[in-house]
UniProtKB/TrEMBL annotation:
Keywords: Antiport, Cell membrane, Ion transport, Membrane, Transmembrane, Transmembrane helix, Transport. One of its GO terms (cellular component) is plasma membrane. The keyword Disulfide bond does not apply. It comes from the Bacteria. The keyword Transport applies. This is Na+/H+ antiporter Mnh2 subunit F. Pfam families: MrpF_PhaF. It is a multi-pass membrane protein. Belongs to the CPA3 antiporters (TC 2.A.63) subunit F family. It comes from Staphylococcus hominis. Its main location: membrane.
Length: 100
C-alpha cells in the first residue's frame, strides 16, 4: 500500500515538475529581457533540483544528493555573475589592486 502511494505521488510530482520545467524553459528562451532570463534560469535550476530529489526517492538512494548540491552551487554562481554583468558590465573587478 505504501509502495503504491509512493509510486503515485512520485509520478505525479515528476509530471508537475516536468510541466514547470517546460514553462520555465519557454520563458528562458523567449524572455523579453535578460533579467527575465536570469529568473527563469533560477527557476529551471530549482525545478531540476526537485526532479533529481524525486528520482533519488524513487531509486531509494542518496547518491543523487551530491548532484543537487552541485546544481545549486552552479546556479548560484551563474546568477550572481550574470546579475553583476547586467548591473555594471563587469563580472570581475580588474581595477582593484592588492596592497602589500
Amino acid at each position: 500500500m505504501i509502495q503504491a502511494m509512493t509510486n503515485f505521488f512520485s509520478t505525479g510530482a515528476l509530471i508537475l515538475f516536468g510541466i514547470a520545467f517546460i514553462i520555465g524553459l519557454f520563458r528562458l528562451i523567449k524572455g523579453p529581457t535578460t533579467a527575465d532570463r536570469v529568473v527563469a534560469f533560477d527557476a529551471a535550476s530549482a525545478v531540476i533540483m526537485c526532479i533529481v530529489g524525486v528520482v533519488s526517492v524513487i531509486y531509494d538512494t542518496d547518491a543523487y544528493l551530491d548532484s543537487i548540491m552541485l546544481i545549486a552551487i552552479i546556479s548560484f554562481v551563474s546568477s550572481v555573475s550574470i546579475s553583476r554583468f547586467i548591473g555594471g558590465g563587469r563580472v570581475f573587478n580588474g581595477t582593484h589592486k592588492k596592497r602589500h
